[in-house]
Design goal:
acyltransferase activity, transferring groups other than amino-acyl groups; globular; alpha+beta; Aminopeptidase; Acetyltransferase; GNAT_dom; nine-stranded mixed sheet; Acyl_CoA_acyltransferase; 3 helices; single chain; transferase
């Protein structure tokens, strides 16, 4: 599969079941799929236009989501979950979806994104250790896996404790 085989777009009405199927295929349990469903139902977390999918031949093969979170009371975005069907992993689908999603967040005027993820993957998007910004997670996590991305060059992310939407259960 090459990049020319898929397109990336915002989630639209009717994509919900396909997104759930991607999450179920990409992860060993229903936890991430259930999280997406719960976030979609939470108007304090869900932000229209910040859920993106990759599509090939009409089928959703990748998904990434940004939802509302806070650092010390200041609004930020949480990037989670991100998923690609196993047959398309390692092809650039995830990178394409996340790049488009972060661009959409910038266009929407958002200032900061936070991710808990692989230390060897997310820095390619500009994410850096949250500790360098004075941001702490609400749980124990390796320093190189809890990352922050200022979405504009002049952005100084807020510092303090990260608070996820209630659906995350932390």
């Amino acid at each position: 599969m090459t990049e020319n085989n898929w397109s990336v777009r915002p989630e639209k009405h009717g994509d919900e079941a396909a997104i759930r199927a991607v999450e179920m295929a990409a992860f060993p349990s229903a936890e991430e799929a259930d999280l997406v469903d719960a976030l979609r139902r939470d108007p304090t977390a869900w932000i229209d236009g910040l859920s993106y999918v990759a599509v090939v031949d009409g089928d959703v093969i990748g998904h990434a989501l940004l939802t509302r979170a806070e650092i010390d009371g200041e609004p930020v975005l949480a990037l989670a979950p991100c998923a690609v069907v196993p047959s398309a992993q390692g092809t650039g689908v995830g990178t394409s979806v996340i790049t488009a999603l972060l661009d959409a967040a910038r266009e929407a005027g958002e200032t900061t994104a936070v991710v808990l993820g692989h230390a060897d993957y997310y820095p390619r998007f500009g994410f850096r250790p949250a500790s360098g910004f004075g941001v702490t997670a609400p749980f124990d996590v390796p320093d190189d896996a809890f990352l922050v991305l200022p979405l504009a060059p002049d952005t100084v992310p807020p510092s303090g404790l990260m608070r996820y939407a209630a659906a995350f259960g932390v």
